[in-house]
Amino acid sequence: MDILKLIERVPDLFSETNGNIVQFVIYKYYRDLDGYKFPSKLSDEELKEIQRKVIEVAKELPMWENNFNIVETQQATTELTMILYERGILGSESLQRRNMALMFDESERHIIRVNERDHIKLIFRGAYSEMDEIGEESQIYVALLDRALNFAFKEGIGYLTSSPRYLGHALSISAMIHIPAIFLLGQIQNFSQILQRNLIVLSGLMDTTIQTYGAFVQIKITSFFDSFTETKTKMASTLEEIVELENQLRNLIYADRPVEVEDRIYKSLAILQSAKLLSLMETYEHLSNLRIGVDLGYIKDIHPGFFNEVFFRILPYHIKIYYGVPEDDLIKEAEMRALLIQELLDKYHYEG
Amino acid sequence: MLCSRCNKKEAEITYKEYVEGKKVTLFLCRECAEELASGIRIIPEEEMIPHETLIKCNVCGTSLRDFRNNFLMGCPTCYDYFLPYFKEVFDRIIHRSYFNGERLKAENFTQFVESELQKLKQTLEELKEREEFKEAIKVRDRIRKLENILKWIS
What we know:
The structure holds two protein chains of two kinds. Chain A is of the alpha+beta class. Chain A has two domains: 3-249, 2-Layer Sandwich (Creatine Kinase, Chain A, domain 2); 258-347, no CATH class. Chain A has twelve helices and eleven strands. Chain B is mainly alpha-helical. Chain B contains six helices and two strands; from the N terminus they run ββαααααα. In chain B, a hairpin with a 2-residue loop joins strand 1 (13-19) and strand 2. In chain B, helix 5 packs antiparallel against helix 6 (133-153). The chains are: A alpha+beta, B mainly alpha. The interface between A and B is large, with 44 and 37 residues.
């Protein structure tokens, strides 16, 4: 696999490029084959058998459209592993797993992890506007796999997985959201209440352990005895509430504190345009401010596609590998990040 | 420290109660604590540990204690052994401990895919008429995908 091409690739997740609060949604299905112990209790031989069995069936699924990669994590280089991890293709849990394999397509919308905590984790990602469509389609693919592999299932309990948190439909739904106004106006308590009402929690961004980048937050709901429709309805209504709250607050800021907001936006733009060193956290913070500037129409000459491309490319291993920065050279990494941002700002500059 | 009630045996248990609205803390030996707690026998830890490790799944060997430690089952059969211990907890936290949904079956989606296809084909014609070719390509690709799925289902 050409690792530099992978780094340069803008995944198909962010198909909506303008004015987004919900960036994208992720459906994850946890499944285990009937008649086998869960991965932590299996020998290397048994894990290999599961891997072979799953890949043989999964590669025929129509969702790939004859375009997919298979990576056996034990044979992957550290560089590839870290890039896949930062892009959420590989999870933080996967890093310590034995005989694990990954299948994913170029759009990075469909991912199958074999032998993580469960035999199979099927991941479907896409834009918020496609939430219903992806939900329906993903169920069909899971059902097709079940027909060929026979998943462990028990009436009254649901799909049997290694963690009882996923009992029921054995599903989790996550959403990446951008909520600068909620942060700016200190409305975190209101935001938390919305989440608590539906047992929704904050989760690590893109399966990492980091919970926020600037005002980018990922939230997650697990089925826990619920059906697909129940789980999805809870997430969809929560997202609607969050969008409404964020929009109300954006209007409030726009009306009441325009100078303060404008100041933040233009300071961030100036820093991104001319800084010589940019750490990851400060970059996300400035990107978040810039994003709200574009969303609210203050900045008209940056194409929103900029945010899509920049999202993964500024991550530490993406920078280190692309520019050949030594592992522990944080200064060089920050320098290259600043350079990259400036190159991308030029690339996406247009006459509004 | 000696039991603050009988003053004879070593105190093992911290006993707290409210007397006339004030919290009173006593350090008691096992016998005095049991007597005060209305005859409830307090199980010593050494008796409790084997109990949890003895409840084991006969397929993968995971014990109830292993499960309590990491909240992970070892195999599908573990659910028969351990789930009853947690039903009450689930009921309390999420107000349910049963699943009334169904197993996903590909055949059940035939109708959905067919109706989607019908809608998309109509949209494609409209887009072509309006010469919105960029959108039309997207719709055409989705039609192909759904036709492929339909082939698989059947």
